[in-house]
Every structure is written in C-alpha cells, then in structure tokens.
Amino acid sequence: QVQLVESGGGLVQPGGSLRLSCAASGSIFSIYAMGWYRQAPGKQRELVATITSSGSTNYADSVKGRFTISRDNAKNTVYLQMNSLKPEDTAVYYCNAPLTDSNHRYLELWGQGTPVTVSS
C-alpha cells in the first residue's frame, strides 16, 4: 500500500523554526510534483509550497523568504523548513504527492496531517 507519512510538527514560539518531513512508502514507480498545504481552524486548505521532480519550487506569498521546500528523490521524501514562524502560521500541515505506483496506477495521495502551533 502506497502512503505518505508526515512528521515534525509541534509547538514553537514566534520567531522559531520547525522542519516537516513527508516520506512516501510502498511500491512507487514515479512521484511528480510534491507539495505542502495547510489548514487553519475555520479556514480552507491553502497551498504553502510545491516542488517538481527536477527541483523547481513555488511558494505562497505569505511564506516566501521564510519557508524552504526541498526533496530527496532517492528517499521519496519532501521537507519543509519553516523559519521565522508567526502565529498566523498555526495550522495543520498536509503533504501532497501525485504519483504512479508499480502497477502504473495514478494516485493523488495526502498525508495524515501534522499540527503546527506558533504561540508564546
């Protein structure tokens, strides 16, 4: 079974840093662009950042200059380094990965979500 497993969320003070990880496991043929989304209480899920298989990145304006997305294709893992965190970054963060499994089925996978709380 192909799945995404996230880790790295938690409680951090304003101005602090956290690093999120998301690993894809199972019989995978190819992973396309991977991304991070977040959903704050009472709000819709929004895009945070995406990265293609070749390393091209895209960020929401609200996180540019503070967050960095990266990936390790050999490990089927995507990371989100979050610096200078603000209270408004508080949300559940979700990893997303469209991929093809070993049976050449296209799947759009989401991680289970990892909570990030920025508070003093």
In quaternary terms, these chains amount to single chain
Number of strands: 12
Q: In terms of structural class, how would the helical and strand content be classed?
A: mainly beta
**Proportion in helices:** under 10%
How would you sum up this structure, described in words?
With 120 residues, this protein is mainly beta. The protein contains no helices and twelve strands. The protein is 0% helix and 57% strand. Strands 2, 4, 5, 6, 7, 10, 11 and 12 form an eight-stranded mixed beta sheet that branches.
What's the short story on this structure?
With 120 residues, this protein is mainly β.
Quick tags:
mainly beta, 4-stranded antiparallel β-sheet, 57% strand, 8-stranded mixed β-sheet, 120 residues
Topology:
Blueprint: E1 3-7, E2 10-12, E3 18-25, E4 28-31, E5 34-39, E6 46-51, E7 57-59, E8 67-72, E9 77-82, E10 91-101, E11 106-110, E12 114-118
